[in-house]
C-alpha cells in the first residue's frame, strides 16, 4: 500500500481557505462553524489580523494553528507518507505517481473546483506575507516554498 498527500504553498493555501470558509455559509461542509461565522464580516486583511491573534476564537479542532508537516510526520519528525504531491503541479505529480505505481487509471483533465481569485500574492502586504512565513516556517523549510 502506498500512502500519499498533497501539499500547497502556505500563502496560496490561506487565500483559498479563507474564501472556502467564507463561501460555506449555512452548508456546514467545512466543520468550522466559528470561522465560517466570523469570516462573513471579514475581508482578507481582517482574516490576517485574526490569524495573528493566538487568542482569537476558533473551532475546537485548532486546525488553523497546525502546519502541513504536523499531519504528515511521525513522532520523530520523519515524513510518514510515501509520496508528496504538490498542488501547484498536481496534474503532473499525480500522473507521475500513477505511472510509478503502474495503476490502470488516468488523471482527470478537468478541474472539479476552480476559482478565479487571481494570484495569491495580491492579497498580501509585507506584514501579512511575513505572518504566514512565521506560522508555516516548518512547511516552508520542508517543502522549499517561497512567497
Describe the structure.
The chain has 147 residues and is mainly α. The chain has one domain. It contains seven helices and two strands, in the order E-H-H-H-H-E-H-H-H. It has a two-stranded parallel sheet with strand order 1-2. The longest helix has 13 residues. It is globular, with a radius of gyration of 17 Å. The model has no long low-confidence stretch (mean pLDDT 91).
Query: What percent of residues adopt helix (DSSP H or I)?
Result: 40-55%
Give the amount of beta strand, in percent: 5-15%
Number of strands: 2
Tertiary shape: globular
Low-confidence stretches: none
Which strand order spans the largest sheet, edge to edge or round the barrel? 1-2
Radius of gyration: 17 Å
Mean pLDDT: 91
User: Any idea how many domains?
Assistant: 1
Order of helices and strands: EHHHHEHHH
Structure classification = mainly alpha
Termini, distance in Å? Answer: 34 Å
Biggest sheet overview: 2 strands, parallel
Describe the secondary-structure layout:
Elements: E1 4-7, H1 10-22, H2 33-39, H3 44-52, H4 68-72, E2 83-86, H5 90-100, H6 126-135, H7 137-143
Parallel strand pairs: 1-2
Task: Give a nutshell description of this structure.
The chain is 42% helix and 5% strand.
Question: Notable features of this structure?
Answer:
about 150 residues, 7 helices, mainly alpha, two-stranded parallel sheet
Amino acid at each position: 500500500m502506498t500512502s500519499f498527500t498533497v501539499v500547497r504553498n502556505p500563502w496560496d493555501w490561506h487565500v483559498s481557505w479563507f474564501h472556502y470558509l467564507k463561501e460555506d455559509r449555512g452548508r456546514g461542509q467545512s466543520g468550522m462553524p466559528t470561522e465560517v461565522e466570523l469570516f462573513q464580516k471579514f475581508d482578507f486583511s481582517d482574516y490576517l489580523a485574526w490569524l495573528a491573534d493566538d487568542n482569537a476564537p476558533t473551532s475546537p479542532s485548532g486546525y488553523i494553528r497546525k502546519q502541513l508537516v504536523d499531519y504528515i510526520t511521525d513522532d520523530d519528525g520523519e515524513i510518514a507518507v510515501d509520496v508528496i504531491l504538490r498542488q501547484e503541479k498536481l496534474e503532473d505529480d499525480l500522473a507521475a505517481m500513477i505511472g510509478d505505481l503502474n495503476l490502470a487509471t488516468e488523471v482527470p483533465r478537468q478541474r472539479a473546483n476552480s476559482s478565479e481569485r487571481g494570484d495569491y500574492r495580491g492579497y498580501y502586504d509585507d506584514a501579512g506575507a511575513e505572518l504566514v512565513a512565521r506560522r508555516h516556517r516548518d512547511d516552508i523549510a520542508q517543502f522549499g516554498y517561497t512567497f
